[in-house]
Amino acid sequence: MNTAQERRRAWDGYWASGALHSCAGSFDGNYGGAIASFWRETFMHLQPGERVLDLACGNGPLGRLLLECRDDASIGCDAVDLATPSPRWLSEMPAAQAARLRFHGGVAAESLPFDDGRFALVTSQYGLEYTDLARSVAELQRVLRRPGRIALLVHHAGSRPVALAHDEITHLDWLGAEDGLLDSVARIVPLVDRAQTPQGRAALAQDASAERQRQHFNSLQQALSRRAEASICPDVLYEVRDAAARLFALAGGSGSSAALEGLGRLRRHLMDSRIRLEDLCRCALDADGVAALSQRLAPAARTAELHESGHLMGWTLVATLPG
Questions:
Q1: Phi/psi at 123 (nearest 5 deg)?
Q2: What strands, in cross-sheet order, belong to the sheet with 51-55?
Q3: CA-based nearest residue to 56, from 123, 156, 10
Q4: Cα separations (Å) of 169 from 54, 118, 166, 233?
Q5: Largest Cα–Cα distance of the chain, in whole Å?
Q6: How far, in Å, CA of 136 to CA of 109, rounded?
Q7: Domains and CATH numbers, the chain
Q8: CA distance 40 to 90
Q9: What is the pTM of this model?
């Protein structure tokens, strides 16, 4: 079981990479198509002077869509996340537009720093389901004015993102297994370093253990190619294959120590990826789960499955809390 500190570190590092949203492996840039249409329709009902609260905002894909589709300077958004957002795109916006969106890092949805009835609309995209729903929904309802609207997109247990996550987890486990590819890279790095001198190459030519390590690495590379061909989400396999080539080049140019330090960073990066993917799979909701969330939000909340390019992408939940 990963600790809360490990999970927060994993998400902090992810957002610091500049990813706009939590499905960066599925979509380049911001969401489009049916997902963007759902949010544009939601935002079109905002009235002048109203403010939006975006929960578990990541690097602000919803805030960005809001600024793009509603140019009314009186409509603003507060975006909160337990991790630390790093929205690089915000610096590219005109100052007057950027000022409409306020990011609040290190803020839990279960304990919001806002007054009662502050917001006309509360949103969350692939975020609220990661929280303690008993507490976060109560906070959501507290800061929402009456009448007020709620619009959510949450992970579906049978969705494409969940299937991709499960597939990638199997690859991460294979890569990190004992005597697996990462271990093999660690053993090859010193051999590459030794091969930088004529004496080293001559010694390696007589080293049966080194030859076994080379053959083992080559067999793992072939296995990687087979896995990738059969996978619905092979990206991490190709990324590690390319990273191994860079580490060998580093070993040849700067020595074993530098390359092994780089391998350590790669292992930590992959471990953090696994933590995030486990979070996604654990928090995705089946039909009973989304029904329970809907009932908790508001008795009249409406739920629907959302599809994008032929793939099931999640549940939408829309509710109005009456005055």
A1: -125, 160
A2: 101-105, 76-81, 51-55, 119-125, 144-154, 311-321, 302-308
A3: 123
A4: 29, 40, 5, 10
A5: 83
A6: 5
A7: 4-159+284-321 (3.40.50.150), 162-280 (no CATH)
A8: 19
A9: 0.88
- Residue type, position 104, single letter: H
- Would you give per-residue pLDDT tens digits along the chain (323 residues)? 566 677 667 666 665 555 544 554 444 444 669 999 999 999 999 999 999 999 999 999 999 999 999 999 999 999 999 988 888 899 888 899 899 999 999 999 999 999 999 999 999 999 999 999 999 999 999 999 999 999 999 999 999 999 999 999 999 999 999 999 999 999 999 999 999 999 999 999 999 999 999 999 999 999 999 999 999 999 999 999 999 999 999 999 999 999 999 999 999 999 999 999 999 999 999 999 999 999 999 988 999 999 999 999 999 999 999 88
Cα of 126 vs its chain's centroid, Å = 9
- Supply 69's token pair: 């589709």
Neighbours of 28 (CB within 10 A): 8
Given the structure tokens 């350590």, which residue do they identify? 264
Instruction: Give the separation between CA 74 and CA 205, rounded to whole angstroms.
Output: 73
**Cα–Cα separations (whole angstroms), residue 82 to 126, 151, 200, 221, 280:** 14, 20, 51, 39, 15
Helix runs in 114-234, H state only: 133-143, 160-176, 181-194, 198-205, 208-230
Which residues 6+ apart lie within 8 Å of 145 measured at CB?
117, 118, 119, 120
Instruction: Find the length of the chain.
Output: 323
- Phi, psi angle pair for 91, to nearest 5°: -70, -15
Residue type, 120: A
